[in-house]
Amino acid sequence: MSHMTRTEAQFIPLQRTYYPVIVALFIAVFLISNILATKGVAIGPLITDGAFFLFPLAYVLGDVLAECYGFKAARRAIFTGFAVTLLAVASFYIAIWLPPAGFYESQDEFTHVLGLVPQIVVASLAGYVVGQLLNSWVLVAIKRRTGEKSLWARLIGSTVVGEFGDTLLFCLIAAPVIGISTAPDLLNFVIVGFLWKTLIEVLLLPVTYAVIGWVKKREGYGLAA
Predict the structure, then answer these.
(1) Which of 56, 65, 67, 83 is nearest to 21 (CA)?
(2) How far apart are CA 37 and CA 44, in angstroms?
(3) Are strands 46-49 and 40-43 parallel, antiparallel or unpaired?
(4) Rounded to the nearest 5°, which phi and psi values hold at 112?
(5) Per-residue pLDDT of the chain (225 residues; tens, 9 = 90+)
């Protein structure tokens, strides 16, 4: 009778870090924002989209990733978010293409909401990748010069550069689809969008400070130095 050896079940141990949680939130915010942005919103004289209250959180989380974990870790999160969004968009189009069941009466509404205009998708993804990479790169570059001092300077500096790159690229690609055809209207579109997003980021500085402090404390930041 042959002797059979049994091996115990093995699993890869998880490292105790908040990085995966922050990345998941970062990607979720961007993905949800792309869906909310399909709705136009008018608040007094301000014309914006349905993601205006959520999208700035993506830059807060991007700042946290770059400040706490470095540029390479932030870049990995950005590209992961890009891939997940591509998967979502492809899934939307497949679901729209599939024939609806006889009892399903909302095909037109489903198509209208999730049938994102390809040029808007390209504009959003291009702005996201360029803006977030610029934001993370500038933040880390300033940090290498200032060390742990002047957190406010690198948060604001990276936001200005990142948001400008994001807004400019998005507006240049999306303007023809939205109906913007003149240079003055395009300039207004870029300036208003950039100033609005940057203002929100500045107002959220206390939140960014608090989250960065919370993450650093629980990750044992600086203890190994």
Answers:
(1) 65
(2) 18
(3) antiparallel
(4) -65, -40
(5) 555 556 788 878 878 899 999 999 999 998 888 788 777 777 777 666 777 788 888 888 999 999 999 999 999 999 999 999 899 989 999 999 999 999 999 999 888 878 776 777 888 889 889 999 999 999 999 999 988 888 999 999 999 999 899 888 888 887 777 677 778 777 877 887 788 888 888 898 999 999 999 999 988 876 544
| Cβ neighbours around 22 below 10 Å, total | 21
DSSP string across 74-96: HHHHHHHHHHHHHHHHHHHHHHH
CA dihedral 156, 158, 159, 164 (to 10 degrees): 130
CA distances from residue 210 to 113, 213, 224 in whole angstroms, order as listed: 36, 5, 22
Query: How far is 136 from 133, CA to CA, in rounded Å?
Result: 5
CA torsion angle 80 81 82 85 (round to 10): 120
Residue 131 contacts residue 166 (beta carbons within 8 Å): yes
19-217 classified as CATH 1.10.1760:
yes
The pTM (predicted TM-score) of the whole model is: 0.83
